[in-house]
Amino acid sequence: MPKHGLDRDLVRMANQISRQFTYVSDDEAAVKVAYHLHAFWEPRMVAGLEAHAAERPADFEPIVLAATRILAEQYGEASAAH
Amino acid sequence: MTLIREQDFGTKARPGPATVHVQVDGRNVDVPEGTSIMRAAATAGIDIPKLCATDSLDAFGSCRLCVVEVDGRRGTPASCTTPCSDGMSVKTQTEKVQRLRSGVMELYFSDHPQDCLSGGGHGCELHDLADTVGLTEVRYGQPETSHQDAAKDVSNPYFAFDAAKCIVCSRCVRACDEVQGTFALTIAGRGFDSRVSAGQDQPFLDSECVSCGACVQACPTDALQEKTLIQLGPPNRSVLTTCAYCGVGCSFKAEMQGDTVVNMVPYKNGGANEGHSCVKGRFAWGYASHKDRITKPMVRDTIEDPWREVSWDEAIAYTATRFQQIAAQYGASAIGGITSSRCTNEEVYLVQKMVRAAFGTNNVDTCARVCHSPTGYGLKTTFGTSAGTQDFASVAKADVIVVIGANPTDGHPVFASRMKRRLRQGAKLIVIDPRRIDLVRSPHIEASHHLQLLPGTNVAVINAMAHVVVTEGLMDQAFVDERCEDVAEWAAFIARPENSPEAMEPITSVPAAELRAAARLYATAPNAAIYYGLGVTEHSQGSTMVMGMANLAMATGNIGREGVGVSPLRGQNNVQGSCDMGSFPHELSGYRHVSDPTVRELFADLWGAPIHPEPGLRIPNMLSSAIDGTFRGIYIQGEDLAQSDPNTQHVTAALMAMDLVVVQDLFLNETAKYAHVFLPGTSFLEKDGTFTNAERRINRVRPVMKPVTGKQEWEVVVEISAAMGYHMAYANESEIMDEIAALTPTFAGVSFKKLDELGSIQWPCNDAAPNGTRTMHVDGFVRGKGHFVETAYVPTDERTNRKFPLLLTTGRILSQYNVGAQTRRTKNNTWHPEDVLDIHPSDAEMRGIHDGDWVSLASRVGETTLKAKLSERMPPGVVYTTFHHPVTGANVVTTEFSDWATNCPEYKVTAVQVTPAPTTRPLIMHQVPLESTLVEVGAASAISASGVSASGAGASGAHASAVRTEAADPRA
Questions:
Q1: Which residues in chain B have their CB less than 8 angstroms from residue A3's CB?
Q2: CA distance B398 to B390
Q3: Which residue, B694, B883, B659, is CA-closest to B776?
Q4: Which residues, at least 6 apart from B873, have a Cβ–Cβ distance to it below 8 Å?
Q5: Would the CB atoms of A43 and B544 count as touching at under 8 Å?
Q6: For residue B93, is pLDDT > 80?
Q7: Are B242 and B251 in contact (CB under 8 A)?
Q8: Lowest mean pLDDT among B22-31, B38-47, B707-716, B912-921
Q9: Average pLDDT value for residue range B728-741
């Protein structure tokens, strides 16, 4: 479908971001991805990503899943404050 | 009321350390060595008569009017071609000289329309000089042969050439050569038969002339004259302002009769353009008074209703009330705004302030999202500041110039003229572009290397170039050791075999040997400069590529002085400014993240409103959220998303899903079809404020007339905010800039007063740089050390396949501008009345397509129809089109893929198929799951906007998606 909601964007965008950090270890990449999402993604996008990852983790690269865990652990308070 | 007339010194300045002392008519004057007598005299306040000389051109010495006598020298040398020597004494008004001048003028007038002798056109130097030399009669009588019956050439829509008035001084020819660099004119014939010839003795319109107007400006008679000047007569006042087209930001004198613009003359002291311009800025300003201009606010409850003109009070109250209702029901995060890169800094600043303080959200973005947002990300990450490093004049010191993903002769023509001048002087050129742009080979210019890469492989190429630099020992080790960090990690990464030119060749299609040669040329040049455009940024790795270029520049020490650098050719007149003003969901003005509590406190204190600490939605996220139902109201200032943003069907579906779409613009555009409120905006001729160009140069925009809408745009924003309960108070635009300066360290020293004093200011302008900053990162990077980033090449997800085997890339053309809202409403349609599809002859032949045939251009998201133009400028497998005409709808086929860091759309890489179209009239069809409906543009159609909204919103699966494509009056 040419038109689409945010959810489809989130999967595509998150996976795309994760593929940019192949030059570091997966752990480091997850940290970088988490930072990027926290710095540039609006809270409903982060929340949508976390919800989708919890429900359908197979849609995401492993680095994205690791990044969502870091997001919740390190930035969770800030996200919840929105 | 006065006309601004810049002094013409007759010949160019010759800056240099040595000085000579001369005396002209008894006045002592010191000038740099090499200065002409003419210029020295002008410096001393003495104007020597001249016709063939002007200080934008090299001296020519043909008219013989400027002859003088020099003590101790024989004869009467031309003062324009004679340099001063130390101790020289010059006489400019001896009896002998006056006699010679009078004789020369008499000869000129012997073959010149007699009416010029007693009256003349505006600024006719020949007429003025006749008075100066005291010429009152021509004794030659009517010669047997003359040029008085010479035909006029009125082919150009903007200026006329009357050969009868031409004195063959060659100023026009030299202006076309030296200033513009097109070489479209010559002097044909010899002796009495000499005549100005365009092209191969063709009408101007049929020749290579690009209608920049440099010849018109250079002409000392009325031979070349603007048609508006002929029609309206001479102006009587000038207003200095700035062009509203591209990111060059040319300064102009708007020359007026009352409130009527007669002509726009490039301002010689304009920092960006120094007296030059292009066809758009100089001539295509008529859109400001076009009949399509909307001057009254309009509202409607639904987009199916006709528009209703209302008062400003009603429109503002309606807008404010609706935003408040939506926010109350769905939360402040359900509303937001988009600012324009065509509006002033002051206007943009206030819209983002309204969104943050009155709406209570960071859901504000700007059109830089779809063009140079990767520049902001990439240069901030590597250098520490989201802007280019140089000014335009810097190119004059470059020894090697790299142009990547840009076509400056079309997109930034005045800067291109500077670049071409440097190339003609011997600088080398490397072009990295899938298309053979004009710069690859044009008069007196040929690229040393054209790396004709496949679309989507920029990072592979730049990494391969950097690989050469590192592995062949071409790094400027002293520079990187002193000024940069993370060098070793980056060098180890880039040296890997997979980054070599040989490994990348199958991916990029660039021969390894060619790439190695180009890399060596760049790395070994004393000064090497990179200029780039949207062919870099509008990719899935746009930000990565910007960082890759920054890596290359740092690795070779090409940062921090003139002649080097990394310079984005920013598209719009104020896209730099709209970014500077914090019109981003994650940043406040000066590129400071909203999460920084110190910055938020600064704004909150001055604004009296809290700033949200989390980033807001970007434009693509706003649209997707609208389809989800979580984003429901939008304020769109001067942007036409429905034409300019990718995947048109997605955009229009999102707009239709919203409860409130407010459009502030000059004309009803594609986006306005989906709007509930239309607030008429002001053109640049009515605005009072500033634009910031690609050089970080803040220029004044001064009004030549009152707003035809009755209000300045910023006043409307202030009133909407007030109606929503947030009050702002400014007496004028200068006070808005004062607030910007108070809050933004890079603007701290900027004020309207200082801009009037200095003419323009390049930020940063603060205590450390009170007059602004020409070149960035001179002694150190803004972030401290330059940061090397490992830029792994990741192929785009957009792939060709059997169904879509070609790659589409898009771009601009000289005569039209962006979505064409302005230029389509001028005579520039003469040159580009429609978008066409450039296709390689071999691709066309395989498909049975001939030049001029209608073709269907289809991608996985949509299809459109346009005419084919066979061209070898692209390699086989790549097609190209522009996006200036809504009827073509080029963005119907572009996809949702975007830059990983910024969501800048990947306009430059779309997998498509091209097939002969079964019809002879243009069609736009959106791809649908089960059935398709063709809608003929211009034909009566039973499908209305209501049909679109009913079928387009909500339902998934089978539905007919028929889109009204004709820009019919929605008020009908």
A1: 627, 647, 649-650, 653-654, 952
A2: 11
A3: B694
A4: B435, B436, B437, B838, B880
A5: no
A6: yes
A7: yes
A8: B912-921
A9: 98
Q: What phi, psi does B881 have (nearest 5°)?
A: -150, 170
From the list A4, A39, A41, which residue is nearest B627 (CB)? A4
A3, A9, A82 member nearest B621 (Cβ): A9
Coil, strand or helix at B808? strand
CB contact under 8 A, A6 and B896: no
CB–CB contact B617 A42 (8 Å): yes
Rg (CA), chain A: 12
Q: DSSP 3-state helix, strand, coil percentages of chain B (rounded to 5)?
A: 35, 20, 50
* Residue in A closest to B542 by C-alpha: A20
DSSP B197: E
What is the reported pLDDT for B127?
80
Condensed to tens digits (0 to 9), the pLDDT of residues A72-81 reads 998 874 444 3
Question: Residue A80: its chain B contacts at CB < 8 A?
Answer: none
- How does pLDDT run across B171-222, given as a tens digit for each residue? 999 999 999 999 999 999 998 899 999 999 999 999 999 999 999 999 999 9
Q: CA of A15 to nearest chain B CA: how many angstroms apart?
A: 9
Say what the pLDDT of residue B142 is.
Answer: 66
pTM of the model: 0.92
Distance CA B787, CA B771 (A): 28
Distance from CA of B185 to the nearest CA of A (A): 50
8 A C-beta contact, residue B435 and residue B873? yes
Nearest chain B CA: its distance from A82 CA (Å):
7
Contact yes or no for B314/B297 (Cβ under 8 A): yes
- Cross-chain Cβ contact B797/A13 below 8 Å: no
Q: Which residues of A touch B585 (CB under 8 A)?
A: 42
Report ipTM (2 d.p.).
0.94
Measured distance CA(A23)–CA(A28) in Å, rounded: 10
Nearest CA in chain A to B459: A20
Contact B900 A23 (CB under 8 A): no
Chain A interface residues facing chain B, Cβ-Cβ under 8 Å? 1-9, 12-13, 16-17, 19-24, 36, 39-45, 78-79, 81-82
Q: In terms of Cα–Cα distance, which of B348, B344, B341, B375 is closest to B818?
A: B341
Q: Which of B586, B625, B862 sits opposite A6 (nearest CB)?
A: B625
| Predicted pLDDT at B921 | 55
| Through-space distance between the first and last CA atoms of chain A, rounded to whole angstroms | 31
| The pLDDT of residue B792 is above 70 | yes
d(CA B536, CA B458): 7
Work out the widest C-alpha separation in chain A, in whole angstroms.
36
Separation of CA B75 from chain center: 50
Nearest to B470 by CA among B429, B505, B500, B432: B500
Residue of A nearest to B894 (CA): A2
Residues B913-927: pLDDT tens digits? Answer: 999 997 655 555 544
